[in-house]
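tool_call: predict_structure(chain=1)
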Amino acid sequence: MLSYAVFVLAVGGVYALLALSLNLVWGGVGMVNLGLAGFFAVGAYASALATKLGGLPVPVGLALALVAGALAGLAVTFSTLRLRDDYLAIVTLGFAEVVRLVASNEIWLTNGTDGISGIPRPFPAPSPFAFNSWYLAFISAVVALVFWLVRRLDRAPYGRALRAIREDQQVAAVAGKAVTRFKAEAFSLAAAIAALAGAMYGHFTSFVAPDLFQPLITIYIFLAVTAGGTGRPAGALAGAYAVIVFLEATRFIAEAIPRISPLQAAAAREALVGVALILLLRWRPAGLLPELSTRAPKP
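tool_result:
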């Protein structure tokens, strides 16, 4: 049971990175990114190919995942600068599906639907439990570092500029803010964090495949940010761990229902997630840790 708990918390660290990524671009600048799973996959494949096929060290693979995610974020940003709200969401969702389809069909590069196995791990371990424990400490340190960075940005004048663009980008532009540059920077940074999460996940499980990057991941991360509190990094962090724990708890709840098939158990889990979200939005519409109103410092 302890080994299972350690594994769940390690996966929760991956969800935390994805939640921080989404909170930066959605809660910060107001850009709806439904392509989170696509950037997640870009980072996972970039690091897997660099370390498994290229023979590069794991830290170099993680760095390449960050670069690949940032470049992909820039490409998506500049192709969607004129789009807002629903149109932006549709384009980013399409990007995620394009990445998944490319990973499924370009067998020469990604091994197709069979995926890439045997991805190098960052450090040896005498047992699976020891590796999971060490990796939990490793990913927790990465999450803490990313959280510190995002929190610093959120409290800095840069974060206030992002929130001004979120509220009304025309007013922000009139006030002298470079809206296009802020959007591109925020989206690229968020994409790099999501790609880092993909690389961390790939080196944890030693396997990546297109089926792992379904749009359902994006839905879970939106649920995490909504539950934790949109616009607040601490809320995104709390929501990510709450969602992964709740998702695993529903596994035991569904299996405890008598005379239920595995398919019905899976449907019951999704129903429980939906009920929990409805109740949360009913009683805590701003999330567990709602965004705090900050005042600009006095001159």
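agent: The beta strands are 116-117, 207-208. Proceeding to next step.
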